[in-house]
Write the structure tokens for this entry.
Amino acid sequence: LLRIILEIENKGNSFKVPCPMERSQILPYHFREANPSEKLLVGSEGMAQQGQGSMDPDVLDDIIKRLLDYGNPKAGTKQAMLNESEIRQLCSASREILLQQPCLLELAAPVKICGDIHGQYSDLLRLFEYGSFPPAANYLFLGDYVDRGKQSLETICLMFAYKIKYPENFFLLRGNHECASINRIYGFYDECKRRFNVKLWKVFTDTFNCLPVAAVIDEKILCMHGGLSPDLTNVEQIKNIERPTDVPDSGLLCDLLWSDPSKDVSGWGMNDRGVSYTFGADKVAEFLIKNDMDLVCRAHQVVEDGYEFFADRQLVTLFSAPNYCGEFDNAGALMSVDESLMCSFQILKPAIRRPRFF
């Protein structure tokens, strides 16, 4: 029984609405004791396994402190002011760790899952305030850290810093915007060029090319940024994707980062994005049955409430950037998966936009 509950956090208040989801038996929680390069351990109750990669731990801690102080008005810090050398160290050390871990992550609950962030750094900090800052909770992010928002550099630097600090408790998947051809256009390139230089953008590109592309939680929940692929019949295929790699224009890797569910199609359909496919509820059910899984968890689309179900609750879309781009009134959400595979949603309410008078 994979169960869903809703928890809305608004000014410190919360309430829960139980929504039973009848599928397989609850998978008992267990640690994965195996070769670390093959199976990953997510520590119980946020107990972190620390490791700084090739970075000096004192330097790393200072970077994290400055990034967090930057987002805290009470700290009186106006600028994070990481220098180029520090950012290059973050990229290098995180790249090293990413390549040591598989392209298909195999994680054990409990874990909190977040969708698109898109450079909305203050909202990322709000997510951590609601869900607990690492290492008090384990995290899986589904990609799209950069572009469109004003603070992509702060966002991705904090992500990389936490990945280096807590490599077995903090996980980052690749989104379609962690690709040079996309973030060259939608803001990240310009931010790097304006604040530093183009060479630093290329360093980030080299690291993005090493990000894993999917995760499986307790063998029952498949997570990726985009969605399913006509080339994907067995999750084991994802392990064969070699890194570092750019994102191709078609094929399995492209679809995992670009495809979308659609209520208007049965099977596979054309995607209005001009890339990849759309897929119907029938393809979700078919894939889950064939792979003995219960849920597909993905991001990639703005949804009004921060989360949205599809295919009789066999797929959920998460979006974690409230008031996206300042143009939408959407909420943001994170999904918590506990040891019994109960899923709950914590909602970041959108700010109330005041009408403009001319």
Summary: Residues 84-100 form the longest helix (17 residues). Residues 4-348 form a domain with the Purple Acid Phosphatase; chain A, domain 2 fold (CATH 3.60.21.10). The two ends are 55 Å apart (CA to CA). The chain has one domain: 4-348.
